[in-house]
């Protein structure tokens, strides 16, 4: 089954001409075999040299484009020498997911301790054997967060969990953190799946991460360890004991060979691999040179057991409190980018308490671009109220002009473009304080899911980020709902769904 899946993926890669995917695959193989590799194998020494040059500061780079976000991850997983840790909400076994899995296995095989904590709700049972085989490696451990839905849970047990502990059923790990050697970290909106790196043929996410190098990564590492040791993080082998026992050593070796075969077939099939590697090395040097160094930054995360002891669906959390504090500090202007926009009642109160003259502008999805019609229906209910409160809103178009700038690889002109979905979660206050993380402006992020993010107080980065968001709010990229009703710009079926869902009392779950 895995072999057939790999062969289908290889054919799709060849047709798509995915150069940066080649980079990740080749770099993963290069880490195990002699040959070209990204930047320098002496990863810790490179990072130490950078931090010595900027004592007490951390280097920051905003990863706006999917290609550079993938490149940064490839660099980290192939160059890590001691440890490689991941918290993620989604781990899909599509093109990106399988290549990333192979790269992590290669890292473990060269002596790196690899730890992955993934949320339970989206894991595909078809790949449980693959996960168990990876976990069988002595230096690769996989844990599942709050497994009450899929892993080791029968359908009957899942229904019972839903009915008997609705609160826990909805506690999900929405964090997305990657840490290499405790010295380089990425936090932001991207999960491990094609659509977060511009390789989905139906829709892709306009997303954003932040790369941090230096002392601040210690905060991210401490948070990872807090989640990793939580009672909610359970070892996959203990969740699937019978299935694990049925896997023989030969089965595990075969799964490893299939992964390796996937990467090698990719190398053999695409002659532009070496050029991609060379270009990748140059771009990584440029990225490192563009790091902005500062000591005024900090990391915030909800606890793993967020509101677990409470009844109902409210409760807030550390991340929501930090964002409220940031918004309350505004004196001139607030710029927000969020895929979902459902303000809680205290959110309206928070904006109402701002000093007179503070401008608020929000970039969010339209019905035509959103990946979540249910959540959009919650926004539809309050759109006029938001506009009446003086908040400037722009709704992202499904094929904005900015798409060609943000997605670097060429699209086949004879094939329809995928829908471009807003997925970035970003805040800029007064052109000097910025936030990049996982928090959506909706009740689920505020009360149910665990969220995280990085705050940076830096005028240069904040100005760059605000200018980018405002560019995406321009007419060629977004609709102004005060002038144009964007709802008719999509199918009747979507309009019907949204209209029906807005009648249901589901706001706390959105």
Explain this structure.
The protein has about 500 residues and is α+β, with helices and mostly antiparallel strands. The protein has 2 domains: about 1-290, Endonuclease Chain A (Endonuclease, Chain A, 2-Layer Sandwich), CATH 3.30.870; about 295-510, Endonuclease Chain A (Endonuclease, Chain A), CATH 3.30.870.10. The chain contains 20 helices and 19 strands. Strands 9-4-3-2-5-6-8-1-10 form a 9-stranded mixed beta sheet, sandwiched between helices. Strands 11-18-17-16-12-13-14-19 form an 8-stranded mixed beta sheet, sandwiched between helices. Strand 13 (about 360-365), helix 16 and strand 14 form a beta-alpha-beta unit. It starts with a helix and ends in a 9-residue tail after the last helix.
Largest sheet: 9 strands, mixed
CATH superfamily of the largest domain: Endonuclease Chain A
Number of helices: 20
> Which parts are unreliable, with pLDDT below 50 for 5 consecutive residues or more?
1-23, 25-39, 270-275
Classified by CATH, the class of the largest domain is Alpha Beta
Q: Give the N-to-C terminal Cα separation.
A: 36 Å
Total separate domains: 2
**Annotated CATH architecture of the largest domain:** 2-Layer Sandwich
Mean pLDDT: 87
Structural class: alpha+beta
Percent helix, as a range, is 40-55%
What labels would you give this structure?
single chain, 510 residues, alpha+beta, Endonuclease, Chain A, nine-stranded mixed β-sheet, eight-stranded mixed β-sheet, 20 helices, 19 strands, 18% strand, globular
């Amino acid at each position: 089954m895995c072999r057939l899946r790999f062969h289908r993926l290889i054919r799709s890669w060849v047709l798509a001409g995915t150069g940066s995917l080649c980079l990740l695959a080749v770099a993963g193989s290069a880490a195990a075999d002699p040959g070209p590799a990204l930047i320098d194998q002496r990863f810790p020494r490179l990072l130490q040299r950078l931090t010595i040059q900027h004592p007490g500061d951390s280097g920051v780079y905003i990863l706006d484009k999917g290609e550079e976000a993938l490149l940064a991850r490839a660099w980290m997983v192939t160059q890590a020498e001691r440890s490689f840790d991941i918290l993620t909400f989604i781990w899909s076994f599509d093109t990106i997911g399988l290549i990333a899995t192979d790269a992590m296995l290669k890292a473990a095989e060269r002596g790196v301790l690899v730890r992955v904590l993934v949320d339970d709700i989206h894991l595909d049972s078809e790949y449980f054997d693959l996960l168990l085989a990876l976990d069988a490696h002595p230096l690769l451990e996989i844990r599942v967060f709050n497994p009450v839905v899929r892993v080791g849970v029968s359908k009957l047990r899942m229904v019972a969990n839903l009915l008997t502990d609705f609160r826990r059923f909805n506690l999900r790990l929405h964090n997305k953190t990657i840490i290499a050697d405790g010295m380089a970290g990425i936090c932001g909106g991207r999960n491990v799946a094609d659509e977060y790196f511009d390789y989905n043929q139906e829709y892709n996410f306009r997303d954003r991460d932040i790369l941090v190098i230096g002392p601040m990564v210690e905060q991210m590492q401490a948070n990872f360890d807090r989640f990793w040791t939580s009672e909610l993080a359970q070892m996959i082998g203990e969740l699937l004991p019978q299935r694990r026992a049925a896997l023989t050593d030969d089965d595990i070796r075969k799964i490893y060979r299939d992964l390796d075969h996937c990467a090698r077939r990719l190398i053999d099939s695409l002659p532009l691999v070496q050029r991609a590697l060379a270009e990748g090395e140059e771009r990584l040097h440029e990225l490192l040179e563009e790091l902005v160094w500062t000591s005024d930054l900090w990391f915030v995360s909800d606890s793993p057991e967020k509101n677990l002891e409470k009844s109902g669906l409210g409760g807030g959390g550390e991340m929501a409190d930090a964002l409220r504090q940031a918004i309350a500090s505004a004196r001139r202007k607030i710029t927000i980018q969020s895929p979902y926009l459902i303000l809680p009642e205290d959110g309206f109160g928070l904006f109402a308490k701002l000093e007179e003259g503070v401008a608020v502008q929000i970039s969010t999805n339209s019905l035509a671009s959103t990946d979540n019609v249910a959540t959009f229906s919650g926004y539809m209910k309050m759109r006029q109220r938001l506009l009446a409160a003086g908040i400037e809103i722009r709704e992202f178009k499904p094929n904005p002009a900015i798409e060609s700038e943000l997605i670097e690889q060429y699209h086949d002109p004879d094939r329809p473009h995928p829908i471009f979905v807003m997925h970035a979660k970003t805040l800029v206050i007064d052109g000097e304080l910025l936030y990049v993380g996982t928090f959506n402006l909706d009740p689920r992020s505020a009360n149910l899911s665990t969220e995280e993010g990085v705050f940076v107080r830096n005028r240069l980065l904040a100005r760059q980020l605000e200018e980018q968001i405002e560019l995406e709010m321009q007419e060629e990229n977004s609709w102004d709902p005060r002038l144009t009703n964007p709802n008719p710009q999509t199918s009747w079926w979507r309009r019907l769904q949204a209209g029906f869902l807005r009648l249901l009392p589901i706001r706390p779950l959105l």
